[in-house]
Amino acid sequence: MNGVEIVERLLAYGQYHQLLLEDDCVTARNELWMLLGIDGTEPYTPIAPTDADIYQLLNAAVDHCRQNGNALRFTYEVDQLYAALMQPLVPRNSILNQWFWQIHAHDPIGATAAFYAFSKATVYIRMDRIEKNISYEAATDYGNMTITINMTKPEKDPAEIALLKAVPSTGYPKCLLCIENSGYPGNAAHPARHQHRLISVVLEGEPWYFQFSPYVYYNEHAIVLSREHRDMVINRQTFKRLMAFVSIFPHYFIGSNADLPIVGGSILNHDHYQAGFHKMPMMQADKWFSYSVTSNENVQLDVLKWPVSVIRLRSDCSEALVEEATRIFDAWCRYTDENMAIIAETDTRHNTVTPIARRILTETGGMYELSLALRNNRTTETYPEGIFHPHREHHHIKKENIGLIEVMGLAVLPARLKDELSTMAEMIAEGGVARLAEMESDVHLAKHVPWLKAMSDDLEALTMTTTVDKKSVDLFFQQAVGLKFQSVLEDAGVFKKNRKAFEAFLDFVYRP
């Protein structure tokens, strides 16, 4: 496929997905020719709007560039070309916002679905990588949880890693969430965002923006970000903004990572939330016990049967939820229970929450829901990574922070596990638990051996069956990883299964 044909197929694809109109094609064609080094001397024939395998087209463009002297050696250079080739097909933010809010006026579900389809069609969401993710449901003591192994972030070769050190820091954009990422060409240290677009939304009188995560972990995985680059913070305004958002997008949940290190997310320097059109495992959790809210009879308070300590508030009045969430949060920030290793403050504050809001819609209107996961980021000599952080015996599976997504029961596990678990399953299927000694000398597998030894009786029983094969061991490991994730979340729970301690905190809030 030559360069001219690639351009015409890109224009046909863009029209098919309603990214641009026929009147836009002359301008877009010239821009694409410039990117691909086409001088206009070759004849071209416009193609009617037609769908295409966009990644096949973009890869053809990469081949064209390489054949014409552009080495495109590094992954980031290929990603930059992908994004740059999509930019001429993509409307400006102002046009996109007009289109989005026109749909939203009569169909909020349709509006976010259309924007999601747009973000995939423009290759901002890299479905070619996301489709490589592993995802399955695992049964736990708290109901099914979702286990994912994240394969979306491409590996960098040593030369590319070395190149990162030579990239000068400009401070622009200030972070990966800043609005200045829209249209940013990227470099070795910062992803290309030529085709990245944002939807403007006002929350409590402030300008915020709505976009999708390029690394979607669930349906319509969205990021809602402040226009101002400012630190993450949880306070009354947080709860008000979450309630405002679910009033605008009643089919979405929205939540915030905690605002402290260890229990927060990976980005603490830009105020933002995560949202989506998805029912998380925590939302299906059973009630552990209820507690009477003496300050507001219109609010129902339940403590969930969940490994992380979660208070769920429900009411048909969003303002009432904001009041009670603020009351609980303020009390939690002051609360100490040394028997549970909870100390509110030393030289710094340790207590915070991970809040999650949603609407429960019915034919008569429905209710608002605001859940507060209680968090504490204190460390000790015994637990230097965090008392309520994944403990070291679980680090072979999960050692990163437990953020908003994990709190709700969706595990995001590292890509290395795909090969490690597969290799161990193959070894056990072929040689049984006797292969554990061999694994102990393997630099990649040795960290898993204590876990496997703890399950050796079950593994031996499995390998004694006449039907054992790699697939059956794979399934065994899937369930075992699910239970390991359950243990990780139990580490993050501040009250564990101690109802008396949990009720003592609620008494501190409502019956001081």
Task: Give an account of the 3D structure.
This protein has a 10-stranded antiparallel beta sheet. Strands 1-2-13 form a 3-stranded mixed beta sheet. The chain has 17 helices and 13 strands. Helix content is 38%, strand content 15%. It is α+β, with helices and mostly antiparallel strands and 512 residues long. The mean pLDDT is 95.
Order of helices and strands: HHHHHHHEEHEEEHEEEEEHEEHEHHHHHH
Average the pLDDT over all residues and give the rounded result: 95
The helical percent reads 25-40%
Largest sheet: 10 strands, antiparallel
Runs with pLDDT <50, length 5+?
none
- The dominant shape is globular
Q: Termini, distance in Å? A: 75 Å
Strand order of the largest sheet: 3-4-5-7-6-11-12-10-9-8
Short description:
The chain has 512 residues and is an alpha+beta fold. It has helices at residues 3-16, 25-36, 54-67, 75-86, 93-104, 108-121, 127-130, 158-166, 236-248, 318-334, 404-407, 416-431, 436-440, 449-454, 456-463, 470-492, 499-510, and strands spanning 134-140, 143-149, 199-203, 206-212, 222-226, 253-255, 272-276, 287-291, 300-304, 310-315, 351-360, 367-376, 410-413.
